[in-house]
Design brief:
globular; binds zinc ion; single chain; nine-stranded antiparallel beta sheet; alpha+beta; binds pyridine-2,4-dicarboxylic acid; 17 strands; Jelly Rolls
Amino acid sequence: MQTQAITREMQDWVAQQLAAGHGQHEVFQALLDAGWHATAANRALGLQAAGEAAMPQPAQAVPRVRADAAGAMVDAGDKWVTVREHRSAPELWVFDNLLSAAECEALIAAAESRLARSLTVDIRTGGEELNHDRTSHGMFYTRGENEAIRRIEARIARLLNWPVRNGEGLQVLRYRRGAEYKPHYDYFDPGEPGTAAILRRGGQRVASLIMYLREPEEGGATVFPDIGLRVRPQQGSAVFFSYAVAHPTSLTLHGGEPVKSGEKWIATKWLREREFI
Ligand code: PD2
Ligand code: ZN
């Protein structure tokens, strides 16, 4: 990567923005939008580049949604997707009609026989563990596993302007009555000993897209306690949020409320900084 020189003008501009009360992440994103590399933007903000000592954490480049002028629709390549809601802190979008009903049912049908009690990555060791905060059953599709998955992954890549190769395989989860996912962050905690091993494969998670494949009759909302947001699951809809810094200041704490009746099915796409092999 070419090194970009930090100019006096840029430093003055950064100082003015911070003095005016704009947050580091907001200024970082504005620098990226203006064409600066993440490394230069981090340096201008006095944050270390990735690979250097880890405090304070560098901000990462993240997937970005580009809506139409009215902010109502987003071009996802093979279709236009409707914006139900947009928040800026954290950067969060709720989309309707991302997946068709037939696509949702096909993802469920092919996942059903492969479900197992959900595990999560154990950040102490880098392995997997049974998680009592997560009482769903799940499975992972391999990236590009079949034609339908390839089409959906290409649509997501276009929607979020992030390469298919930086995505983990789609995870499908089924929540039956009483099942829930207690509030958590999707990034890997940089302070945990197992994280370094996990990050060797594609770097940090920088964004999540939770797609609703089947809505429960009651309960099962996705909640964001820090911002007082509750997203109602609706077949074909999705919630997307990004986190430039793997830290609670990202405001991306989120959970899945218990399903009260019926079943909730979701598919989650987690996006990494780099190619996830
Ligand atoms: O199912 C949900 O609402 C939910 C909540 C929190 C899913 C996830 N996290 C996830 O897949 O990371
Ligand atoms: Zn989550």
